[in-house]
Amino acid sequence: MSAISVGQAVVLGVVEGVTEFLPVSSTGHLKITEGLMNIPVDDKSVVGFSAVIQVGAIAAVLVYFFKDIKRIVSAWFRGLTKPEERYHHDYKFAWWVIAATIPIVLVGLAAKPLIEGPLASLWVVAGSLIGGSVVMWCADQMGRHKRGEDDTSFKDAMLVGCSQILALLFPGFSRSGATMSTALILDLDRVAATRLSFFLGIPALTGAGIYELKDALGAGVGAAPLAVGTIVSFVVAYASIAWLLKFVAKHSFNAFVIYRIVIGAGLIGLLASGTISS
Q: Domain locations in the chain?
């Protein structure tokens, strides 16, 4: 019997699609939802399932930003054979994304037992939701929002890329929240910070999904729930991306900060009362 049913996969796909790119922690929300549905959050197959359906959300990014990605990838390939093209920002940006992905890959492989074990606890999720909210609020207040996407540098990409490690080690911190907060501290405007977060998430999340596929299939999750969860995640994530870009163009991140604190505090209450298991 599959560890996750098709019906549960639909619910988890919706949660993943809505929360993957919002700075509220998709991992945290998935673990909370799994806990409420009595799905063991630290089961290897469940952890694998969560990573695999992220590929649906990443596919939504690839489709939504297809023109941008095509431009950047084309510039990279041209630069490989034509030295004069290597001064183009898109060519350099492609290399920056590759370089900025290496730290999270190395930490992910080295810390896999911790990530799938003690750090998968819902207590960690609750603390990370609240702690990440403080970081996000401070970053939004500190940032001068004066730099656009064309002003990004190698240093920006590396610092923002490395910040993904926080979300990897502390589910609930939020990969989007960590990357956007770091970008804001570096004085990028909110739209530039959000777009940079999207682009840096493509290789990291795609790689994680492919890597975890064997565990998800081999340890108890059937192909049908995986397929359904991934498809639902794609559809919902596409709509979520479009909404988020419009929202951050006119609003601060305060709404997300308040939401995260409420969810984190609520989760602590549920855990303390024994309503759900950690």
A: 6-273
